[in-house]
Write a structure and sequence with these properties.
This protein is an alpha+beta fold. The chain contains two helices and five strands. The chain folds into two domains: about 45 residues; about 40 residues.
């Protein structure tokens, strides 16, 4: 199972997953797409991320700051910081 987010209506992104029965199971709703992406990243085993000053994302494993989730995921793969949750 993988957590995903979908645009459920204008200006609203819903985080959840599809069960084996293909039924949608929601977790949370977000007004901002990036917030939904951060939640999905965390639920899928990534480092906890939060919005820092400006538009950066932070890694709790090393307190590094990253511009986007892709950059943060690359950092996690290189450092193993995402292994802390597993």
């Amino acid at each position: 199972m993988a957590w995903v987010y979908e645009k459920s209506e204008a200006g609203l992104w819903t985080v959840g997953f599809y069960g084996l029965d293909m039924k949608w199971n929601s977790d949370s709703d977000h007004d901002v797409r990036e917030e939904a992406a951060r939640r999905v990243h965390w639920l899928n085993g990534g480092c906890r991320v939060e919005a820092n000053v400006g538009k950066s994302l932070g890694c709790y494993g090393c307190e590094g700051e990253f511009v986007d989730v892709t950059e943060l995921e690359r950092h996690e793969a290189e450092t193993g910081h995402n292994e802390e949750r597993r």
